[in-house]
């Protein structure tokens, strides 16, 4: 089981705004912020999550690499659609409109957006699986 994940971004202010907007429909908000001074010069970081659990981190300190894939669990198909709309409104690029993905498994419903640093960000609802 993964406890948390993080990656570097090229512009923390821009990325924070994008993820705050895109993840809000999934009930995820900023849980923690760490300054450059607090890390002893190893970058500034923002963590998203819920209920005091910061599990998705973005930060500075090293070059952004892009090309990562992160999928966030949605409560239902409407949550997937709301994520997709919010992410596009926040400046993301469509990488797969909300819809069923039966090749993944029965009940898989997802949407994909490319974020500000070229990462593939997804919201998924697993629905009823066999």
UniProtKB/TrEMBL annotation:
**Domain (VOC): residue spans on this chain:** 1-126
MF terms from GO for this chain are: dioxygenase activity
Q: What is this protein called?
A: Catechol 2,3-dioxygenase
Q: Name one Pfam family in it.
A: Glyoxalase
Q: Report keywords, A-Z.
A: Dioxygenase, Oxidoreductase
Organism equals Paracoccus isoporae
Cross-referenced SUPFAM superfamilies: Glyoxalase/Bleomycin resistance protein/Dihydroxybiphenyl dioxygenase
Where does the UniProt annotation place the signal sequence?
Answer: none
Q: What is the organism lineage in this UniProt record?
A: Bacteria, Pseudomonadati, Pseudomonadota, Alphaproteobacteria, Rhodobacterales
